Amino acid sequence: MTVSLNPSPRPSPRRRGRNNERRSQIVNRETRAWDTQDVDLLMTVFHPDMVWPWPRTPRSHDPLDWVIEWGRYDYKRWKRDWQELFDTHHLARNQREIKKIEISKEGDGAFAVVDIDTLWIDRNDGKNHWKGRTCKVYSKIGDEWKMIMQTGVLDYS
User: Fold this and answer.
1) Stretch 66-83: mean pLDDT, rounded?
2) CA dihedral in degrees (152, 118, 22, 140; nearest 10)?
3) Distance CA 129, CA 147 (A)
4) I want to staple 66 with a disulfide (CB 3.0 to 4.6 A). Which of 53, 100, 106, 121 is the partner?
5) DSSP string, 114-138
6) Could you tell me the residue range of the domain that residue 42 belongs to?
7) What residues pair up with 117 in beta bridges, in sequence order?
8) For position 124, which CATH number holds?
9) How many domains, in total, are found in the chain?
10) In terms of Cα–Cα distance, which of 135, 142, 154, 116 is closest to 47?
11) How many CB atoms lie within 10 A of CB 95?
């Protein structure tokens, strides 16, 4: 899927609506992958150099308390591990609200601020709850946007 997120100077209100829709496509593609537990679709979101730091808790705003559990993106490893989550958990809830999308003036970098409330439940009724705000960072490769980094979920309430 090709996603166009090119900014344009002073677009008309009608054009702004279309631009916002196009800008949200990459975030919505990721959401669709979680909703459908489609690991192949999820893999299309990630940049080959993606890294994914996670705070130890949703209140760990200081990056000194963050960890990287999976290392740099590796297609086989990440696909296997996300498939394991999908195979062992039921997605009870996946609510996402895009708060902001910002694109560089060069049109080759972007970030999206997304509030999420995602609840996974395993076979023993164990809960894995992702609730709070994320910042998803994208890089444009050719005509396609790829997520190159995302902060783990942080609670700003």
Assistant:
1) 94
2) 30
3) 22
4) 53
5) EEEEEEEEETTS-EEEEEEEEEEEE
6) 13-150
7) 95, 131
8) 3.10.450.50
9) 1
10) 142
11) 11
How would you classify the pairing of strands 66-67 and 54-55? antiparallel
Q: Is residue 6 a part of any domain in this protein? A: no
Sign of CA dihedral 9, 145, 94, 41: positive
* pLDDT digit string, tens, across residues 75-111: 999 999 999 999 999 999 999 999 999 999 999 999 9
Q: Which residues neighbour 62 within 8 Å (Cβ) at sequence distance 6 or greater?
A: none
- Whether 27 is in a domain gets the answer yes
The answer to the question of residue 137 being in a domain is yes
- Smallest CA-to-CA distance from 39 within 80, 69, 92, 88 is with 80
Query: How far is residue 103's CA from residue 128's CA, in Å, rounded to a whole number?
Result: 32
Is residue 23 one of the residues assigned to a domain? yes
For 126-147, how does the pLDDT look when each residue is reduced to its tens digit (9 = 90+)?
Answer: 999 999 999 999 999 998 899 9
